Amino acid sequence: MTTLPRLLLLVCGIVLNTAPGYTQEAGRRPDAPSPGGPEMMRRGGPGRGLIEPPRPLTPLPGWTQESFQKNVELGPRAIFELSNSLGEVRVTGTDGNTIRLTAVKRVKEPNKDAARALLQNVVIRITERGGGVEVFTEHPTGNMTPLLVDFEVAVPFAANLSIRNTGTVRVSNVKGELRAEAFAGNIQLTNVARIRQAKTYGGNLVINGAEGEEVSAEVSLNGRMQLRGVRARTIELRGYGGRIAASDIDCERCEFKTFGGEIEFSGNLRRNGRYAMDSVSGNIRMVIDGNVGFDLEAVSSNFRSEFELKRTTAPSPGAAARIVRGSYGDGSAVLTLRTFNGSITVARPAAPAR
After folding, report:
1. Which terminus of the chain has a smaller tally of CB atoms within 10 A, N or C?
2. Residues 308-348: pLDDT tens digits?
3. Under a CB-based contact definition with an 8 Å cutoff, are residues 230 and 250 in contact?
4. Pick from 271, 225, 267, 233: which is nearest to 252 by CA?
5. Taking the domains of the chain in order of start, what are their residue ranges?
6. Taking the CA of residue 304 as centre, how many other CA atoms within 13 Å lie in the half-sphere pointing to its CB?
């Protein structure tokens, strides 16, 4: 069996093994939040968000664990890189120039001696090189016993981060350049800047508060994206079936594309800004205040606008039913909205409740 199928089986096995055991022990509540995958969150009932609650570093029922701690001074390059095989990663920006790293290695093995032996073979390597710090997790080869390594890391505010993890990634209060990848996990970014790349394979992505030159994010499969309070010169979002919801957005160039989900944008247009929303089969809804005029091209089977547009002629009669071209106000911003099987709505914000 190749490496990727083995990894998929291991991830699925851990999710199943760590789910709350209601069927085995009727009426028993779990002693602590259990590890879970993004699919569980997508199917979750009322009140569940896109991102699961953080897993505590305290002991979990049925798991043997071992803690690891290390403090390292960050060099002049201010680069922190972390690669983890399976677990959760939480990174928070703090004052100072010291990286404070706490890791918890966990194994689900009823034989305590075997569990301790397996934990000894899970190696966390920390390398100080070229003015930066690299952290890498090594798992024993050929092992199919469920293993987790959860990280909680405090880094200087201005650190540049590169995070790769199989599992959920959380980053908050970091102002340096950020690259984050999660396989079979979610990504949650809070109060960050300079998001050069945020990519999840099989999970959801949530950004609450970001500013800088560039925000670039991508989700695969049916992962959903949710952005709030993002201000950047360029925002590029890519999805493959899930919904993109972006509110309180301020950008000069926005490009949102999904192959099957809905797109919803609410925020301020900039003069001479460019806004492109593209969905194969989902609806597109833009909520803007109209303080900045815009030039619009909309391609859909159903179009509605709450702004009175000055229409321009479609290029051919056959395309007129699907293409709407028009302008509002000074026409300084450019809106290009396209969906093949959905509807397009350009609306004003709802009036505040009295």
Report:
1. C
2. 999 876 555 555 558 999 999 999 999 999 999 899 999 99
3. yes
4. 233
5. 1-19+61-173, 219-354
6. 11
Question: Which residue type occupies 109?
Answer: E
- Residue corresponding to tokens 């090189």: 129
d(CA 38, CA 114): 30
Q: For residue 53, what is the enclosing H or E element?
A: none
Distance CA 30, CA 27 (A): 10
Tokens representing 203 are 């999970």
List, for residues 234-245, the tens digit of each pLDDT value.
999 999 989 999
Token code pair at residue 269? 């247009």
Q: How many residues does the chain have?
A: 354
Structure tokens at 70: 């290390």
Asked if the model's pLDDT at residue 354 lies above 50, the reply is yes
- For 286, phi then psi, to 5°, come to -115, 125
Q: What is the pTM of this model?
A: 0.84
**Cα 34 versus chain centre, distance:** 21
Beta strand 178-183 pairing with 302-305: unpaired
Q: For the segment 203-219, what is each residue's pLDDT rounded down to a tens digit?
A: 999 999 999 889 999 99
Per-residue model confidence (pLDDT) at position 43 = 34
**Segment 3-16, tens digit of pLDDT:** 444 444 444 444 43
**Residue 132, φ and ψ in degrees, nearest 5:** -130, 175
Q: Which pLDDT value is given to residue 30?
A: 31
How far the first Cα of the chain sits from its last, in Å, is 63
Distances (CA, A) of 313 to 294, 321, 327: 17, 12, 12
For every residue of 219-244, DSSP letters joined together read: E-TT--EEEEEEEEEEEEEEESSS-E
The per-residue DSSP string of 306-346 comes to SS--EE---SSGGGTTTEEEEEETT--EEEEEEESSSEEEE
pLDDT at position 6: 46
The helix/strand/coil state of 335 is strand
Structure tokens at 341: 């099987």
Give residue 104's pLDDT band: very low, low, confident or very high (50, 70, 90): very high
